C-alpha cells in the first residue's frame, strides 16, 4: 500500500481508482483544521475518504476525540487502516442527533463540489468524491440542512469549497442557518480557487 507523509503523519492510500487520493483540497482542509482544533475537542469528519485529515489531526493535536463517516466501503477500510474510527454511512445517517456521542465541537467536510451532469459521472464508488450534482452544491446542501443537529452550542464547521461552487450561495445559506461565516484558508489551483469556509454557530 502506498503511503504519503504530511505534518508528522504517515497516511496509507487506497487504490486510486477506488479511493480519493489526498490533493490540494485535502491539504488545505487539514491545515485549517490544525488551526481550529484544540486539545480535548470532539471532532467529526464527514466523508473522510482515506482518513487523511483525521489522521493528521490525531497526530498533531493532543487529546482530541475524532470520529469519521464515509459512504465508500473501500475508503472506509482505508481510513480504518490509518487508525481513524469510521462509520460507513451517508453523511450523518449513522449518527443519532441529540445524543451525547453525536455532539461535536468541530465538524469537517470536504464535499464533492464539481458540477456534474449524468454524462460526467465517474464509474463506481469514486463518483461520490467528485459528483456535486448539477449545481455542485447538492451534497453540501444536504450536509448544511443537518449539521446544526450535531454541533455543540458555539460549535464550528470547516467546509472546503471551490470558486466553482459559488461562495456567495454557500455563505448566504450558512448565514440563514445561524452561522457566522469567514474564509480561513484560500489557495489558487489552476482554473479555480480553493477555500476553507468556517461557520461558527451564533
- At the fourth level of CATH, the homologous superfamily is Vaccinia Virus protein VP39
- Count of helical stretches: 6
Q: What is the averaged pLDDT score? A: 91
Radius of gyration equals 16 Å
Question: Can you give the helix content as a percent range?
Answer: 25-40%
Please give the structural blueprint:
Layout: E1 3-6, E2 9-12, H1 24-36, E3 42-46, H2 52-60, E4 65-70, H3 73-81, E5 86-88, E6 104-109, H4 127-130, H5 138-147, E7 151-162, H6 167-176, E8 179-189, E9 192-201
Parallel strand pairs: 3-4, 3-6, 4-5, 6-7
Antiparallel strand pairs: 1-2, 7-9, 8-9
Structure description:
By secondary structure, the protein is of the alpha/beta class. It has one domain (3-201): Vaccinia Virus protein VP39 (Rossmann fold, 3-Layer(aba) Sandwich). It is 27% helix and 30% strand. It has helices at 24-36, 52-60, 73-81, 127-130, 138-147, 167-176; strands spanning 3-6, 9-12, 42-46, 65-70, 86-88, 104-109, 151-162, 179-189, 192-201. The strands form two sheets. Strands 5-4-3-6-7-9-8 form a seven-stranded mixed beta sheet, with helices on both faces. It has a two-stranded antiparallel sheet with strand order 1-2. Helix 1 (24-36) packs parallel to helix 2 (52-60). The protein is globular. The termini are far apart. The model has no long low-confidence stretch (mean pLDDT 91).
Amino acid at each position: 500500500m502506498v503511503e504519503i507523509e504530511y505534518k508528522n503523519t504517515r497516511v496509507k492510500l487506497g487504490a486510486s481508482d477506488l479511493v480519493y487520493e489526498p490533493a490540494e483540497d485535502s491539504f488545505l482542509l487539514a491545515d485549517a483544521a490544525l488551526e481550529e482544533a484544540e486539545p480535548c475537542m470532539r471532532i467529526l469528519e464527514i466523508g473522510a475518504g482515506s482518513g487523511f485529515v483525521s489522521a493528521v489531526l490525531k497526530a498533531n493535536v493532543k487529546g482530541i476525540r475524532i470520529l469519521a463517516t464515509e459512504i465508500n466501503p473501500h475508503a472506509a477500510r482505508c481510513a480504518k487502516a490509518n487508525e481513524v474510527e469510521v462509520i460507513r454511512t451517508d453523511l450523518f445517517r449513522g449518527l443519532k442527533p441529540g445524543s451525547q456521542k453525536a455532539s461535536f465541537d468541530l465538524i469537517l467536510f470536504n464535499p464533492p463540489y464539481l458540477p456534474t451532469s449524468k454524462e460526467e459521472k465517474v464509474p463506481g464508488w469514486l463518483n461520490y468524491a467528485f459528483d456535486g450534482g448539477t449545481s455542485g452544491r447538492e451534497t453540501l446542501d444536504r450536509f448544511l440542512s443537518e449539521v446544526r443537529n450535531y454541533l455543540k452550542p458555539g460549535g464550528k464547521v470547516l467546509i472546503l469549497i471551490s470558486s466553482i461552487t459559488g461562495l456567495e450561495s454557500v455563505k448566504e445559506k450558512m448565514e440563514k442557518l445561524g452561522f457566522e461565516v469567514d474564509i480561513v484558508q484560500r489557495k489558487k489551483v489552476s482554473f479555480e480557487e480553493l477555500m476553507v469556509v468556517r461557520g461558527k454557530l451564533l
